[in-house]
Amino acid sequence: MNMTNEEKINEILTLFNIGNYSYKKVHNDKEDYDYDHVYTVTSGSDKYILKKTNKVELAVYNLNLDHFLKPKGSYIDGDDVYLLLPFYEGKSIYDLTRDILIMIIDALCDIQGRYWNASINGLDNFDYYYNRALDRKKYIEEEYLDIYDEFCELYKSIPRTLSNDDLLPFNVMTNNKEVIFIDWGEAGMLPYPLMLARLITTAKEDNYIFQIKEEDRKFAIDYYYEKLISKKGIPYEEYIKVFNYFMFHQYTEGMYVYYKYSDSKTDYTVDEYNRSKEGLSKLTSIICKNR
Predict the structure, then answer these.
(1) 164 forms bridges with which residues in the sheet?
(2) Count of domains in the chain?
(3) Which residue, 14, 257, 189, 227, is CA-closest to 104?
(4) I need a labelling partner for 8 at 20 to 30 A (CA). Which of 52, 63, 211, 215 fits?
């Protein structure tokens, strides 16, 4: 007989032996929704986060990296993994100010520099992400296909390092002294520009959930080069060309969602499509000029 979700959570928490406890779903106050499979657990004066995730994220936590919470325990249940994490007294990031960008990029460079062109147990999943990038081509408008093909060639040829294929601003938390990364279930040994490109193209300057000023986006690209990429012997001009392709790829997401889920268009998907077109047009002009 299948357990209810409540029964399963109670079974897992009992295995962690934390004493009497209560739990509730973590709520995103800014966007007013509950996260799936993420719970705040209280036991006396102690607080934890219980998260249902996957073996990819467990492999990342097993590296015992700085800039990550240190799990109090983990439990593998088939393909699912339950992580018990200490509660972090901080806030998710929505506004990518320059000070925040510096902290994030410093932390990224620390991680990526350590695992540059390395091999990590449990993260030998490059083909999965590469094939996913290839599959997106089906939803890209024809005028952008040549550049997208060039991106796919770069994707498999440039240096790889430990990366999160879904580094959104709110997947970083801060207490204004440090940053902590969360939600790395989409991790792998992936092309080095991928994380920062996703982070800074997801945000924009005007009335949007994630905010960044254009001058701070440009600062982030140069600061990342200075802190890490220049030390890998990659010329600045080559780096900028490659980075533009990865920002181009990130801007295809709105187009991909718009066409893949065309039967259920919403105001949001239309807005994201228009934002996608704007970014792709800008990057197409830059890339073609620098070929």
Answers:
(1) 187
(2) 2
(3) 227
(4) 63
